[in-house]
Design brief:
By secondary structure, the chain is an alpha/beta fold. It is built from 11 helices and 13 strands. Helix content is about 40%, strand content about 20%.
Length: about 280
Amino acid sequence: MNAIESLLAGLIDYAGLYPPAGLDMHPALRNYLSYASGKQAHTLGRFLVDINRLPELRQAAGDSLGGMRLSVIAPAEMASESLQRFLDDGFPIDAVEIKTDRPSEIELVTQRLPAGLTAYFEVPVGFPKSELLQAISAAGARIKLRMGGLFAEAFPSTQVVASMLKALAGRRIPFKATAGLHHPVRSLHPLTHEPGSPVGKMHGFMNLVCASALLHFGGEVNDAKLLLDEEDPGAWRVTPAAIAWRSSSWSADQLRALRQQFFINFGSCSFDEPLRDLEVLGWL
């Protein structure tokens, strides 16, 4: 794979059931299956679904269920009690996403999870307690970072994100991101699909990928903040061999390592929009 293909492989978990898209099960499922057979299928990751909607998913998907990859969002108590039953019923679950800020709960949940599942714990982006990161690292789990939402206040500052990435890179904790990453480069956009939606500055997923690469390969947090702040698409150069931002460059091999070891992927309620923007920029 060339550099952009290495960056994009499995990059987007499809979250069409969630705001701002908020689709019903049938159209979200149709979208996912269409993407899985489309020209950008290599970019598609898992289908995101709440644990209490798994029976609805089975009814909607029928025989197509077996060809899917699922990441299930669940409260801690349901994750440890119910996932094995769904696995035994044939649900192709390979990840679970749990929101918690309690180290003791992280340890308990990971001990009880069925073997083979990857656990992502959503923790506060702003300066989490060291014992929380230690519990996730010790459990061999991963972190989920919320990068935005339906209000401007839901978007963490670039300084907070850079500091969080530095903390994760220092501990070698892999992570996924979610919310607000519909566009490659940091820019102003409506925060919802409603007419008259408030407008806010949204983090770019290329900013986030490259800031993660910078820190993963030994860079400094101040440079990562500058990268997260970047709003000029002309600051990037995308070639078959590498992706560069200003004086920093990452080869296809480095981007593959980054995606396997540190920045795993991100969830988005839109699959088309991020790829369409890459095409407009001439990067895809």
